[in-house]
Specification:
about 325 residues, 4-stranded mixed beta sheet, about 5% strand
């Protein structure tokens, strides 16, 4: 489904690119725009991820220079049954993160230095689990290509400011205004809608990977709070990539509207809290059901107690033994 959506997106962006080319340069401009769009679509599919990483001055890290962060990603990828992605760091005080790549086999995750400095180990794990959910859902191809093509369309619209319309004067001032204003708006609208619909799914998927919706809810609140006060200069220079981040790096939107690049943080937190409550109710029901089952004769006393799910032992990342013992959530990284 995501491949079909990506193909439709590229077709829409190509048509929009050609329309702007026609408004700027008539039939000749449209043909030039078609050639440019074809080249950009090819480039975007194969190299857009590298372009986005370079755009944000991301530096690849490994177990030698970022052992703890790299281990988090490795353990999350194993829990999500994903190939190990390339791991990058971005030198930015604003806590944030994004994922990119055309498929799980060619994926990368990037986090800012501010994320590692300002969030707890559990919150960092939840954020990166969210990004791995994007990879698992194959959202990253659509999001990366959208960032590249939307940026190109915006630049073409800006170029129209220096033109006088097509040579046959069929467009005039209306055509020029459409090229300058409407086309970048349409491109932005597409990337906003795509981002919003996928963020809720990635939140749920990330919670399932790390096993703790409350960790991700806490992380989202932390990142959103810092985004108000800490400016991300690189993102400000490249706004077409804002939809890729877990929280809008350009600033927060109070309303969960079609015109925001991300759902409102409070709505995402509410959805995660509802998910946590649902899991707790299901777990309580399973425990009660297990306790009510009669103990077969000749069985050991331990058989009457609820048994673990059979997954790996829960890991302790800065959590006390009491915390780990009391946290009976099934599934996720810490089992």
């Amino acid at each position: 489904m995501n491949l079909i959506r990506t193909a439709m997106l590229m077709a829409f962006m190509t048509a929009l690119f050609m329309g702007i080319g026609f408004l700027v340069g008539g039939q000749t401009g449209m043909l030039i725009a078609l050639a440019i769009a074809a080249a950009m679509n090819f480039f975007s599919y194969w190299r857009a991820d590298k372009m986005v990483l370079k755009m944000h001055n991301a530096v690849e890290v490994d177990p030698d220079n970022a052992p703890e962060f790299y281990e988090i990603i490795a353990r999350l990828a194993e829990a999500a049954d994903l190939p190990m992605p390339a791991v990058y760091l971005i030198d930015s005080a604003q806590p944030n993160a994004f994922a990119t790549g055309r498929n799980p086999e060619n994926a990368a995750v990037a986090a800012s230095t501010g994320l590692l400095e300002k969030l707890s180990m559990e919150e960092i794990a939840a954020v990166m689990a969210h990004e791995l959910a994007h990879i698992k859902n194959r959202d990253t191809l659509t999001m990366t290509i959208t960032a590249t093509l939307a940026g190109a369309i915006s630049m073409l619209g800006n170029f129209a400011m220096f033109t006088r319309g097509s040579s046959d004067r069929r467009t005039g001032i209306i055509g020029t205004l459409a090229a300058i204003l409407l086309a970048p708006f349409a491109a932005g609208l597409v990337q906003m809608a795509i981002s919003r619909t996928r963020e809720y799914a990635a939140d749920k998927g990330g919670a399932e990977i790390c096993g703790h919706p409350d960790w991700l809810a806490s992380a989202l609140q932390q990142i959103a709070g810092h985004a108000h006060n800490i400016r991300n200069e690189t993102a400000e220079r490249n706004p077409a990539s804002a939809h890729m981040f877990i929280i809008n790096p350009l600033g927060q939107h109070k309303r969960d509207s079609l015109f925001s690049t991300h759902p409102a943080t409070e709505n995402r937190v509410a959805a995660l809290e509802a998910l946590a409550n649902e899991w707790a109710l299901n777990e309580d029901y399973l425990i009660e059901e297990a306790e009510e089952e009669p103990v077969p004769e000749h069985s050991s006393p331990e058989a009457a107690s609820p048994q673990p799910s059979g997954k790996a032992k829960r890991h302790d990342w800065g959590r006390s033994e009491a915390d780990n013992a009391s946290d009976k959530k099934k599934g996720g990284l810490w089992n």
